[in-house]
Design brief:
alpha+beta; BirA Bifunctional Protein, domain 2; Rossmann fold; 2 domains; eight-stranded mixed sheet; five-stranded mixed sheet; 13 helices; about 25% strand; binds zinc ion
């Protein structure tokens, strides 16, 4: 559920910023991986298979399919920039010794996008991505550091393209006034990149967003657009993720919040706790009203004491515990208790729904400002 909430959030944030949702296949023909340079530069991390005597590679990255989508029709400068977004599941062979919980796995899903634009649009597109990263990190309450990585020994492309790409990334960072470290030789094999390292509450640093500037793959796959001069031109491609691997990001989030997620992100937002079985029917009515209003709700009608039910919900750090006794049943409402121990007093169900919805909206609009406060 947590993952789904995060995915829905991502889709909404991308649509708002002019991205298109796309979906590529999991396996692609070997010759495509050869052409992209993955076979020469990334082979040890890839899985291979054979279908009808033809060789295929499982995708370790989403770029290839996105380029094929671009190539599926003639593009004009008026169509650009094109921003393809996919919650793209990739497979990478990692040595068993480095696998680690949700943090390092062999199959993971990236919030991956490829932006195809004209060289003139590059600067603005990079600025937009930096803004996007900043907005999202603020919603979750993370600070971040920035690193710029240059050309590695194992790489493809001309020096002049690499130089142009590095300058584009550098000038975008400079116009934001961000300070950053430079990692010589740590770029991707097809282009230089900016890495954003988020800092969690335990002061650990985690790789999240990257922006990679790529003049090489558009060349290799002969991607073109028709310019206002009627001639064919080469677009630039930006590879970028915001959260990176959803698995790793979830791992970081769980520890960062110590399980006490903001309300909008909580897998269970409200739990109904009955005092005795006399309130069971009414509890079900409340439950139905809440789920109809898209509040993620559970119900505890066990024959246990209210104290025990509260303690258990408290350990699960559920934002709203809705206690129902005879008074709540007679007056058709609930008495919510927060995980801080604070009571909200008697509320009609409609009022509670409104309060929860407002709280979620506020958490997303105001980000860490509100997440650090427990008032509802
Ligand atoms: Zn890519």
């Amino acid at each position: 559920m947590l993952r789904r909430v995060l995915e829905d959030f991502e889709i909404k944030e991308h649509l708002k910023r002019g991205y298109q949702l796309v979906k590529g296949p999991q396996i692609l023909k070997l010759e495509l991986w050869e052409k992209s340079g993955h076979l020469d530069n990334y082979r040890e991390n890839m899985y291979f298979t054979e279908v009808d005597k033809k060789k295929y590679g499982l995708k370790p990255m989403n770029c290839l399919a996105h380029m094929l989508i671009y190539k599926s029709r003639l593009r004009s400068y008026k169509d650009l920039p094109l921003r393809y977004f996919e919650l793209g599941t990739v497979n990478r062979h990692e040595k068993s010794g480095v696998l680690h919980g949700l943090f390092r796995v062999r199959e993971f899903t990236q919030d991956d996008a490829h932006i195809l634009c004209t060289p003139d649009q590059l600067h603005q597109e990079i600025l937009n991505i930096i803004e996007f990263v900043k907005d999202v990190m603020d919603i979750f309450g993370f600070d971040f550091g920035i690193e710029l990585s240059t050309r590695p020994a194992k790489s493809i492309g001309d020096d002049i393209d690499w130089e142009r790409a590095i300058n584009a990334l550098r000038s975008a960072l400079d116009s934001y006034g961000f300070s950053y470290d430079t990692n010589e030789g740590e770029g991707a094999f097809y282009g230089p990149k900016i890495d954003f390292k988020l800092k969690d509450c335990l002061k650990r640093s985690w790789q999240c967003a990257t922006i990679q500037c790529d003049f090489v793959l558009p060349e290799r796959f002969d991607l073109t657009y028709i310019g206002d001069d009627g001639e064919k031109h080469r677009p630039v491609m930006l590879h970028r993720v915001i959260l990176g691997s959803l698995e790793r990001f979830l791992g970081v989030l769980i520890e960062h919040y110590a399980g006490a997620f903001p309300v909008w992100l909580s897998p269970v937002q409200a739990k109904i706790l009955t005092i005795s079985e006399m309130q069971n029917d009414y509890a079900k009515t409340v439950y139905n009203k809440l789920i109809e209003n898209e509040i993620r709700t559970e119900i505890d009608m066990r024959n246990e004491s209210l104290g025990l039910k509260i303690r258990e919900a408290q350990i699960q750090k559920i934002p709203y515990m809705l206690i129902i006794g005879n008074r709540e049943m007679e007056d058709r409402g609930v008495s919510p208790r927060l995980r801080t121990g604070e009571n909200m007093g008697f509320l009609k169900i409609e009022n509670l729904v409104e309060k929860i919805k407002n709280r979620c909206k506020k958490e997303i609009n105001e980000g860490s400002l509100i997440n650090n406060r427990e008032d509802r």
